[in-house]
Amino acid sequence: MSGGVGTTVLWRPTGPEELELVSASGWRKWPPRLPDQPIFYPVLNEDYAVRIARDWNVPASGVGYVTRFHVETEFLGRYPVRQVGGDTILELWVPAEELDEFNTHIVGEIEVVHEFR
Questions:
Q1: What's the mean per-residue pLDDT of the chain?
Q2: CA–CA separation, 89 vs 25, rounded Å?
Q3: Where are the domains positioned within the chain?
Q4: Of 3, 26, 69, 79, which residue has the fewest beta carbons closer than 10 angstroms?
Q5: Where are the strands (E) in the chain, listed by range?
Q6: 116 has pLDDT over 60
């Protein structure tokens, strides 16, 4: 992006219903969380996203996708990195009520980089 905005690459393991909503947005934003989903959690590395999509999304819904997207790095500073397992099991926890603002800091489109069945 022009203007010198630094971005960070994030990944998100995604099921078919969520991906359909992302597609409906023009590949520009994540849909609101459901009532039982208080946080939106993008992950910081592709391998972790692949494991979730393949090992959790496929058994749950028959297909799992890994998406990749870029967010303004300066904006992400408000969300501490959460280590939720091993050294590479890293997530950001975005409160559901902040997702609309988070979406405004996505640079470019959300893209599907892997599909598992």
A1: 94
A2: 28
A3: 7-116
A4: 3
A5: 7-14, 39-40, 64-72, 81-83, 90-92, 94-95, 106-116
A6: yes
Structure tokens at 89: 């099991």
* Model pLDDT for residues 20-60, shown as the tens digit of each residue: 999 999 999 999 999 999 999 999 999 999 999 999 999 99
Instruction: Summarize the confidence of residues 58-73 as an average pLDDT.
Output: 97
Could you give the count of Cα atoms lying within 13 Å of 82 in the half-sphere of its Cβ? Answer: 12
Asked whether the beta carbons of 14 and 65 are under 8 A apart, the reply is yes
CATH number belonging to the domain at 7-116, selected among 3.20.170, 3.90.1720, 3.30.1540, 1.10.357: 3.20.170
Helical H segments across the chain, by residue range? 16-24, 46-52, 58-61, 73-76, 99-104
Whole-number Å distance between alpha carbons of 109 and 90? 22
